Structures are given as structure tokens and as C-alpha cells.
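agent> fetching stored inputs for the cobalt (II) ion docking request
agent> found them:
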Amino acid sequence: MSYFPDVPTIPFEGPESKNPLAFKHYDPEAVVEGKTMREHLRFGAAYWHVMRNGLADPFGGPTALMPWDDGSDSIDNAKKRAEVFFEFLEKTGIDFYCFHDRDIAPELDDFAKSTAALEAVVEHLGQLQEKSGKKLLWGTACLFNHPRYAQGAGTSPDAEVFAYAAAQVKAAIDATHKLGGLGYTFWGGREGYATLLNTDMKRELDHLAALLHLAVDHKKAIGFEGQFYIEPKPREPSTHQYDSDAAACLNFLREYDLLDHFKLNIETNHATLAGHSMQHELTVALNAGALGSIDANQGDTLLGWDTDEFPTDLYGTTQVMLKVLEMGGFTTGGLNFDAKRRRESHEPIDLFHAHVGGMDAFARGLKIAAAIRADGRLREFVANRYASWDSGIGAEIEAGKLTLEDLSKHVRRKGEPTLASGRQEMLSNLINEFI
Ligand code: XUL
Ligand code: CO
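agent> prediction call returned; pasting C-alpha cells
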């Protein structure tokens, strides 16, 4: 039985192809810098967007056609969705997926029932993974949708809500472990505040750290070896979210002695909401040895919210892949399409157009990034720009050998420095040579 009878397995046809449902650049077995494209890119699909996003917006209801879904909270409906999803993964050639507990299984009227439903669907997902060879990139708990979390989950003013969130995190980590998940993500959509008038920020942050420590302890207790991630985002739905950007997350993890246990999952549209470029966020994470995984999407400069568009901007994908190559590639992480179709793209086949385009945009980004690296002029320019630190006074400062007194004498001797140009325009032109 096929749920997408009109869609074939997406072939690679090369740059000359005019077939909208063919890859022009993503050739999974093609080798770039010694690894196949499939190994470099590690594409993942987001269960919530592919299977559960009806494409509603704040002014209008859902439009997405999902002929396979009977709209019920039954386990059978949940299992059927899983089958549709795996057919989608098979046909797109996406190797990984990510989920929230409440996307794959319904939240029922009590915790024990919801957890049993989760376990039943996890069993089924396990069989589908077995048959297809697809893998779970990461799992997570939805700690933002239910009304009980309206004032936070780990940061709720109510200890009973914290306890509920902790119980839900345990069940979601157990599910991820059962499915051999490579990671587990914490995104704190409600871990923040709407106003400081009613908020004890210090206490809330202590509680968030306590929840993460409990998760680390549980991970050890059950022998789950996957990587824990925190996903920064500055706002939406909260006015301010504590994990506001990569630097804030790293500071929080250091302050609460959690840095050894977490890496970051950086999302492009969250970076722009934080007033940063994706390149900035990736660089901050990479500098701390904490770049773990990526939620691949892009925002819209004309809209001030998290539009989660599919990535099509080649400058963006090139910058991401430059950082991923600089890191030496993903280990547990990958490129998870945390992206949704526009509300107007409501037909099931649009899911394929969206993902095929995102995969091709990243395949091109990878090829362009590898070409820029092979060319070497960019790397050489940056190395030369800092060359004054490699010997003489620079090397002595870096080695911590000089005092302010020494530097004062040095400047009296040398006089005014002569600065070299940063050559930004020349470097932008250089990038354009490759795009
Ligand atoms: C929300 C977001 C989440 C996380 C997982 O903006 O990105 O979907 O990726 O909870
Ligand atoms: Co995300």
C-alpha cells in the first residue's frame, strides 16, 4: 500500500535535469573531501512538520491535506502515520528523523495512559526502523503545547508541573534510547518569561539546571549513550527564553557544571531571531567544542517570527557547510529539516518538493564550501591577517611573557601601527566566484 502513489523514489539526475522531483546536486554516493555526500550531510526529517503540521497560522486554520489521517487520538492512527512517514523517508532518501513524544503518540487524559501509548508507537517505529535502516537522529519531549506548561515546564513556578515535566522527559529519553537514538534535544520554548514582574529568574534557572542534571543522571542509569543537545532560541512563544542564543546556553551550561554533558543544536531561523547570523551561532558553538547538530531552515526578513522555511539560500547553506567542514564533520548530529511548507502549499506532494529543494541546496552548499577550501585563498587571507601574532611581539603577548610596562616601552619605541585593509568587498567577491 502506497500513500504517495504519484511520487517515485527521488532519483539523482544531475544539474541538467528539468524534473522537479529529481536531485540536481544531491548524489548520495558522490565523494567530497574524502566522504560521500550522504555521510557529510546526514539529512533528517522532522516528524512534527512532515506528519503533524496542518499549516495553520495565527489568522487561519489548517490547510494541509492528510488523506491517511482520521484525525483521532487512536494508536492505530498514530501507527499509520508512522508508516506514511517511513514511505516518505524511503522515497526522499532521507536517512534520519527527529520527533517529539507527542507528535508520534497522542497525549491522553492521564500520564500513565500517554506513556503506554508512546511505548506502543515506539514499538512500531522500532520495526519500521529495522525494516528500512532509517535512524533516529534525536528525540525530545514536547514541554510547550499542553496548558499545564503555559508558565514553564522545568522553570514553572509550580513544583508539580516540574515533576510532570521530569516524568515526561524520562519517558521521552527512554523512548529515544529504545529506538537507538543518536541524540536527545532540549528546546525550552516555555522556559523563560512573559514578564519579570511575576518571575524569580534565579530560582527558575536553578530549577532548569536541576532538570538537566536529573536527565544526565537518568541517561547514565539506563546506559543511554546518545548526545544531549540544547537548542537556543531567544523568544516565541515566550517573550524571553533563557536559552536565548549559543553564548547564553554555553554560559548557563558552564555555570551549572553541565558543559561536559551537552552540545548545541543550532537552528538557522533561531539565530536570526536572536539578531545573529547562523554563521555567528555556529562559530560560537564550534569555538567551545560544542557544535553538535543543526536544525536546517531559513527565516523571512520581511516577517519578524519563526517562519521555518525550507533552506534554499545558497549563501546560507554554503556558510553552514564551511563550518561543518571546518569542524571535521558531524559525529552524532546531522541536518534536520525543522522546516514547514507555506500554508498555500497544502498538497502532500509539496512535502517532496520542499525536502528535495532543501537537500539540493545543502548539496550545493557542500560542493561550494569544499571548492572554497580547496582554493585556499580565503583561509590564507585570514591566516595572513593575524600573522603579526605568529612571531615577535604578538607571539610574546600570546605566550603571556610581557607586562604592561614592557608593552608601554615597546609602543614608545615603535610608534603608531600601520593597519592593513580587512578587504571585506574583495572577500565577498571571492565567495561569489564559487556560487
Ligand atoms: C521550535 C523548534 C522545535 C525544536 C524541538 O522553534 O525549533 O521544534 O526543534 O523542540
Ligand atoms: Co528546531
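agent> quick read of the result: The domain at 31-375 is CATH 3.20.20.150 (TIM Barrel).
agent> awaiting further instructions
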